[in-house]
Amino acid sequence: MKKTAATEISFTTKGYRQALVLAKTSRKKIFIDAYATWCGPCRQLQKTTFKDAKAAAYFNKNFINLAIDIEKGEGTDLAKRWKIEALPTLLILDEKGNIIADHVGYVDGNGLIEFAKQASVR
Fold first, then answer.
1. Which of 2, 51, 60, 63 gets the most CB atoms within 10 Å of its CB?
2. Is the CATH number of domain 16-120 3.30.460.10?
3. What is the set of active-site residues?
4. Which residues fall within 8 angstroms of residue 77, CB to CB, at 6 or more apart?
5. By its UniProt entry, which Pfam families does this protein fall under (predicted)?
6. Domain boundaries in the chain?
7. Which of 10, 48, 46, 35 is nearest to 86 (CA)?
């Protein structure tokens, strides 16, 4: 685990299929950050929201976190499957890969936690 894991959301680098396996074995939902490198609000999320200590603690404890560049690798197919039309798109998936919540656009740390909590009651 990275040294900064306690102060920022720790995203797995293992890919979507492995995130599904981790979600099933750990009984956690999956948090997806669908982004593109040219997207300003996406970069803002990475610089601020994902480094918010409260958000990091909440997401690292309760989710398998996966950031996906929708213009590279598996991201292109996943963007089509999830019908992503705007960025950033934040998704919460169940352990089977079904979307249970989505949010489009920038959100701060408190807003991100609230989004996740609302998804948990669905």
1. 63
2. no
3. 39, 42
4. none
5. Thioredoxin (PF00085)
6. 16-120
7. 35
